[in-house]
Amino acid sequence: MSKVQIMIVEDDMIIAADISMQLMQLGYEVTGILPRGEDALRQLESTRPDIILMDVNLKGNMDGIETAQHIYDRYRLPLIYLTANADDATFNRAKETKPLAFISKPFKRSDLERTLALVISRLDEQATAPPDNSDANETFLLDDRIFVKQRDRMVKIFIKDILYAEADRNYCKIYTDNKEYLLSIPLGVFEERLQAKEFMRVHRSYVVNVTKIDELSDNSAYLIIGKAHVPVSRSYQEAVLRRLKLF
């Protein structure tokens, strides 16, 4: 089983290093320690972790909450706040960015361990269970095509035209050359139902059509598919190289 990847955004390097050490001791993989929001957004362009630990108070042009809002708008990545500010104004502002949890500073290792365990359990449930709404059964997969509900009609998409699929909480998005579609099923369910040999998982949040891959970065950290840069988790890099016959 691949390790859960966590990015730390914290401008106190002593605190960040301590958190990193605790995470590794707990069996997690730390993908980066970034002191500023701008640095975090730059790194997310090429690699996307499973979870982000975000300090509320950051130096630089953006604080943690503003950075988290950009992350939510662009990537919808799971995020946990680290904060020494427990006032209502800070909490209400941070709540708008849809975090999965708050950890108050100073915190004990058990606080970090239990919060992460609860968040990961929640994410795993979302990845395997269809959402509880009336649209959940309105995505149909046939041998060579998929029908997706778009407003008041069903749209046909040929499976061979799908570039990649991306998790979006308990939904997923599929991308073609000229459009993206939101499916009312989790990525794991979509992958299981798809059962197409052309597709493979390359990241906790991404499944790609290997026939559509244009390039693989030098460090194997991401794939270029059309105009998109799709991240490849370290735990999947060997499988990707083998699939592309680069060994």
Mean pLDDT: 86
Strand content: 25-35%
User: Main sheet, how many strands, which sense, barrel?
Assistant: 5 strands, parallel
Low-pLDDT stretches: 130-137
Q: How does the SSE layout of this entry go?
A:
Blueprint: E1 5-9, H1 13-25, E2 29-34, H2 37-44, E3 51-55, H3 64-74, E4 79-83, H4 88-95, E5 101-104, H5 109-128, E6 139-141, E7 145-150, E8 153-158, E9 164-168, E10 171-175, E11 180-183, H6 187-194, E12 199-203, E13 206-209, E14 215-216, E15 222-225, E16 228-231, H7 234-243
Parallel strand pairs: 1-2, 1-3, 3-4, 4-5
Antiparallel strand pairs: 6-7, 7-8, 9-10, 9-13, 10-11, 12-13, 14-15, 15-16
Helix pairs in contact: 2-3
Characterise this structure:
- The chain is an alpha/beta fold.
- It contains 7 helices and 16 strands.
- Strands 2-1-3-4-5 form a 5-stranded parallel sheet, with helices on both faces. It has a 5-stranded antiparallel sheet with strand order 11-10-9-13-12.
- A hairpin with a 3-residue loop joins strand 6 and strand 7.
- Helix 2 packs parallel to helix 3.
- The longest helix has 20 residues, at 109-128.
- The protein starts with a strand and ends with a helix.
Short structural description:
By secondary structure, the protein is of the alpha/beta class. Helices cover 32% and strands 30% of the residues.
Summarize this structure as a short list of keywords or feature phrases.
247 residues; alpha/beta; five-stranded antiparallel beta sheet
